[in-house]
Amino acid sequence: MQRKTVPVLNSLIFARDSAVAGAPDTDGVGRIWRNSTGVAISCLPDSDGATDIILSDSDPSSDSGLVCIFDGAIDTPSGGLTVEILPDVTLFRMPVARAATGLRVWTDGFPDTKVVWLAVS
Hints:
This protein starts with a strand and ends with a strand. It has strands at 2-6, 12-17, 32-35, 38-42, 51-56, 67-75, 80-85, 89-95, 100-107, 115-120. A hairpin with a 3-residue loop joins strand 7 (80-85) and strand 8 (89-95). It is globular, with a radius of gyration of 13 Å. The protein has no helices and ten strands. It is an all-beta fold. It is 0% helix and 51% strand. The protein has a five-stranded mixed sheet, with no helix packed on it. Strands 3-4-2-7-8 form a five-stranded antiparallel sheet, with no helix packed on it. The relative contact order is 0.30.
C-alpha cells in the first residue's frame, strides 16, 4: 500500500495508464469520470485541506466507513498505472500485469471527499 496526504489544487485526482496522456472530460456534476485509459475523481479542494490518497492491491476494511463509487477496468497497454494530481504531478506509479486493469475507487461518499482509496486488481 502507498499513501500520501496532500492538498489537491484542482480537486481532481487522476488514475491512468502510465504512457497515455489525457484525462476524461469532467463536467463538475459527478464524483468520478472515466474514459478507456483512466478515471478522474473529485476530492477535497485544497483550500479546505488535504486529501488522503491510498493506492493498494486490496479494498479498505469493511469498518472503514468508505463506499465504493467505481468498480470497473481501465486499459493499461503500457503495463503501468500512474496516479497524479494536475498533469505531470505524479503521486504514485505501479506496474500492472495486464492490458486491462481492474480498479475500484472508495471514498467517504461526498464529492469533496477527504479520502480516495484506489484498489487495483
